[in-house]
């Protein structure tokens, strides 16, 4: 059974032949879709001190894009749900004090405006890839969108989700492979690395990879990052914390600063 | 790798031991969670004439719950997106003229109020099971919620999604198995029938099955409905149209009135 | 991506249109492919006393087909590998003393002859569905074959495996759905009940279901058996032991005699 | 639900701590488990002229290990089943005339001896990973075994399959990741690249990758090969034909000589 794309319609705006060139997204001198780009930071925005401290350490390493969630769409209502508006205020401070560009998640149509005030890139999480109301509104947003593939989404479905945003007029979309759900029991998800060349071959949009969520294991972040880059990824999304065991969420998949430095070295210093 | 539930928290309100009895939801003399309940109707609300005609035909067969989507979260932005507010007006008319209870989808937090004005049961589609913002707001809604399992959701994750709604104070939640994504290529999804006894054993909430979306094939609706009922399902959600080939969406999985009558007979006339 | 069938060839001998009637397999007055048939017994042939005792208890309930493995293709070389030839001798004794028909697994081409001397039906396990050498030789065997679907086999691939046997001249093949590997974490496999009507619609061969291996859980055997029968299964393969907790293999999915009696009652006493 | 390993037994001989060093397999001056090793050749042994011609072209490029199947366990009995014994004779000639080491599949216990006379490495295909009779006999074989992961095998199950061979006394086992079956519809299987570092971290055995079978697409062979090497693969298994469109099997995933040369260049000339 092939995916819905072939039955209902054709991809249009996300296809390579629509634009002559690969999409590049400019943030002053920082460009996404050009050389390898690293987005890093803790899973959640935690208290101001911790968040600022991590951000400063990462900025010193040359990082340009900082990720941390203020709104967290957790599986369980009893898990930490994020600092919400307060988290956005902290991110604003991070931005001011470190100059880092902010990447943070927008979890529903009600918070797009306040997230867009602070964020340089609005992230749509895997759980919301099929939230077409959100996608439609982000089509009218003037900030770039990082759109994660749903955990059970066919590539065609990811493309169509992006098509919703492009069709609304927002052409700055970054796709992100973050692992698909399979029978594998040694990782949280299965990183579908073949999606990288396939996406690059089909679409002009940049493709990022999130090895942290894909594997759920610190010990696999470095090899999977290297594999992703070798397969042609335009960027990586890495969960980093200076005290990873104390992370308020996703501790198992969050690496420490030292491991992050090793990762950068193994990738030939993309921040350098 | 076990699901997140065991790591982060425990199920609480959805568990069987919290309430002494199985949840029953009363709509006058119609009860969900008691004897087998059938919810049927076209995939989408189409024009007023068509929708009313189908509703009347189904009401004559004894149907009490009518389903049809006014808001459609389609994979592609180029597919029919539903009649939206206009669709709700048509559903209101169906309700008035036929006495049928209305089951219709709520696709984002922005439309909860207007959907709740018309609907007797608000449906959360598979694509939105992980939309925690929507789940939280539905916890404050005074209408029953039919919550579909995400296409790649572990049962624990479905339970936790329900827990969001229950925790908000809305205890009238109906769970719905609608097929999971597997490698199978002869059906759209794989109906996970074992989920039915498992859910009944774990939770006090009623469990429905949607064989239409699960299989994507008309020829499998009757046997899968019978299997679901044999496994203990409290109800079925069936896509029916009086001219199924003309359905504006999901035509491949929509049965005609005649097949629906056969289904009812094979199920020992649950409407009777 | 569709399965290989469509690319390489067409199904021929397994298709419904080849024979005018549904395949029935006669064992004296016992017929497979007619009314519901139950095959039951312990996972493995254990010592003679235990095996005979279980067989006698089941025969008293009216059982006609007894299953137990003498050769066990276990995942681990450190697990019990079956009694092998000695197990066959025990099965021969069971046959003589109880009159039960014997269903037992043939795990390689080297043991076909000795298994066929004792067994009334030779079982090909899920792990061997793709063992084409075995399938070819079984095409020349004069005993019926119960062919289990591989845990990741498309239906087309199951049909083609059967085609190997039929093409060799052995037309007595019983197909068996035993669960497919999916992301589900509450069962060992996911029982694909839609395969039952699909197989019946495509092929003239009888279709059995093995809820024991499919679920790996005792508590799901009864509801899944009922669902399978409701969906049209021609027979069931059930792991039963009179002291299930002492089973040498698959204890978690083996039910006791009492539960088996309950199952029979819930199925309207198919043993008559 | 975790895999059987944890329930039944523990891995022993395949584990890293058993041997002090990583397993290396010596073929004169050619070593597997040391620097990157490439095994290449057509899917099947075709006629003598074609096979010799391809082998010579590959040998000229510096290839040391030639792969081609004489026995083919095809899904369909109507597909080309390989030249069998005649294919082995051709492989023997290839060996003599080109000096290439031969890697070819052994599909059942009946042909181990004749395959081992010609082959330098005996391949166990994905379909036979669970064929424990074959694994046991290969434990007594004095030739190295290349063991492919089953398409639905957990890593633990792959390790246990290798354990069968090691336990028999044959310590020269090469593991091979060749893609797992998932819902993905743009590739034949999903290459599970995280398996590479995971296997290296758990076991002392070399790990190869087969991007040809994993993806089923020529256009993905180069990026997936690069990704596999970046993730730490010890070797690659590549389907190459000098007229790929004329391949008797697997034409869609077979690359031509020119693409193979490009691959070698992109991998920094491992044939060196």
Q: How would you characterize this protein structure?
A:
The structure is a homotetramer of 272-residue chains. Chain A is an alpha/beta fold and 272 residues long. The first copy, chain A, has one domain: TIM Barrel (Alpha-Beta Barrel), CATH 3.20.20. The first copy, chain A, contains 10 helices and 10 strands. Chain A has helices at residues 4-8, 48-60, 85-98, 112-118, 132-138, 155-167, 195-202, 211-215, 221-230, 257-266; strands at residues 25-27, 30-32, 37-41, 65-67, 101-105, 121-124, 145-148, 173-177, 207-209, 235-239. Chain A has an 8-stranded parallel barrel, surrounded by 6 helices. In chain A, strand 6, helix 5 and strand 7 form a beta-alpha-beta unit. The longest helix of chain A is centred in the middle third of the chain and has 14 residues, at 85-98. The relative contact order of chain A is 0.16. Mean pLDDT of chain A is 94; it is low at 1-8. At the A-B interface, helix 1, helix 5 and helix 6 of A face helix 1, helix 5 and helix 6 of B.
């Amino acid at each position: 059974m092939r995916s819905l794309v072939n039955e209902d319609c054709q991809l249009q705006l996300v296809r390579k032949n629509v634009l002559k060139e690969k999409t590049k997204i400019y943030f002053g001198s920082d460009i996404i879709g050009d050389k390898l780009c690293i987005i890093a930071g803790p899973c959640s925005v935690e208290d101001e001190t911790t968040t600022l401290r991590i951000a400063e350490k990462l900025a010193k390493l040359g990082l340009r894009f900082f990720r941390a969630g203020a709104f967290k769409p957790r599986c369980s209502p009893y898990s930490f749900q994020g600092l919400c508006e307060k988290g956005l205020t902290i991110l604003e401070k991070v931005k001011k004090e470190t100059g880092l560009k902010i990447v943070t998640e927008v979890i529903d149509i009600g918070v797009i405006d306040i997230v867009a005030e602070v964020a340089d890139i609005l992230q749509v999480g895997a759980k919301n890839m099929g939230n077409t109301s959100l996608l439609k509104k982000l089509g009218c947003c003037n900030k770039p969108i990082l759109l994660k593939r749903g955990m059970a989404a066919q590539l065609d479905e990811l493309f169509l989700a992006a098509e919703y945003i492009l069709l609304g007029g927002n052409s700055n979309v970054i796709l992100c492979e973050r692992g698909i759900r399979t029978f594998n029991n040694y990782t949280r998800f299965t990183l579908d690395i073949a999606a990288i060349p396939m996406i690059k071959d089909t679409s002009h949009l940049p493709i990022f990879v999130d090895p942290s969520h894909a594997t759920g294991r610190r010990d696999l972040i470095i090899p999977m990052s290297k594999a992703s880059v070798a397969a042609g990824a335009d960027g990586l999304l890495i969960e980093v914390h200076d005290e990873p065991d104390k992370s308020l969420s996703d501790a198992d998949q969050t690496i420490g600063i030292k491991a992050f430095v090793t990762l950068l070295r193994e990738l030939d210093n993309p921040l350098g």
